[in-house]
Design goal:
single chain; 247 residues; alpha/beta; 7-stranded parallel β-sheet; 8 helices; 9 strands; globular; NADP; oxidoreductase activity, acting on the CH-OH group of donors, NAD or NADP as acceptor; oxidoreductase; Ketoreductase domain-containing protein
Length: 247
């Protein structure tokens, strides 16, 4: 299914790689204007070069509320509006027993995976009009618990709850909030992919379709959630997992 996003403006966090990059490419190919951000400036430039058309980019840490506010305001100054926000920035977990985790690991996970989404959402709301929407990235780990991933699960469960609450709060203003919950996706930061062939096989064995998903398949779902076809979806959690049993 294809959509016409001409004259629509989308903001994407975590746009330098993985699902964020794939979504940027997808939306730009459909005619959208984009505001892209990521802490990795080099990879962000690569994303922009792969997109159709020219787009606004800024590299910063979304854990900074002031930087998020500046980014939102700069986007409004440039484009005059924001039609959709894809809160995709996040850090994939490392398998660590809770007693071995550190304060630094907690702060890294919470600041990026949760606080970043909060920062962008809070800063954007005053500028959004009826018909705009958010898509926030949770995870299979935001629906089902996994051992040795307690902190990551906490951040992703929190995204689900945060998004459902915001859907109720913003719905009366005509602003929708939905959640993308990916399963095992073939991205450079997926711990199974990093582990190599055996790690990938272990993940594939948990998926009924017998393979990892692609970032592009997630991007297709994001495009749908931003489209008029999803106009009555608000507070929904869309799982993209190929048929994965909970742990």
């Amino acid at each position: 299914m294809t959509y016409d996003f001409q004259d629509r403006v989308f903001l994407i966090t975590g746009a330098a790689s993985g699902i964020g990059r794939a979504t940027a490419l997808k939306l730009s190919s459909l005619g959208a204007s984009l505001a892209l951000c990521d802490i990795n400036s080099t990879s962000l430039v690569t994303t922009t070069s792969l997109c159709t058309g020219s787009h606004f980019t800024h590299s910063f840490d979304i854990a900074s509320s002031s930087e998020c506010t500046h980014f939102i305001k700069d986007t409004i100054s440039l484009y005059g509006k924001i039609d959709g926000i894809f809160n995709c920035a996040g850090i994939n977990p490392t398998s660590i027993p809770l007693e071995d985790t550190t304060d630094e690991y907690w702060d890294m996970m919470v600041n990026t995976n949760l606080k970043g989404t909060y920062n962008i959402t809070r800063a954007a709301i005053p500028f959004l009009k009826s018909g705009s929407s958010f898509v926030n990235v949770s995870s299979i780990c935001g629906l089902h618990p996994f051992p040795t991933f307690a902190i990551y699960c906490a951040t992703k469960y929190a995204i689900t709850g945060f998004s459902k609450s915001m859907a109720l709060e913003l719905g009366p203003k005509g602003i929708r909030v939905n959640v993308l919950a990916p399963g095992f996706i073939d991205t450079p930061t997926n711990s199974g992919v990093i582990a190599g062939e055996e790690g990938v096989k272990s993940l594939e064995a948990k998926v009924s379709l017998g393979r990892l998903g692609s970032a592009e398949e997630c991007a297709d779902v994001v495009a749908f959630l931003f489209s008029d076809g999803a106009r009555y979806m608000n507070g929904s959690v869309v799982e993209v997992n190929g048929g994965t049993a909970e742990s």
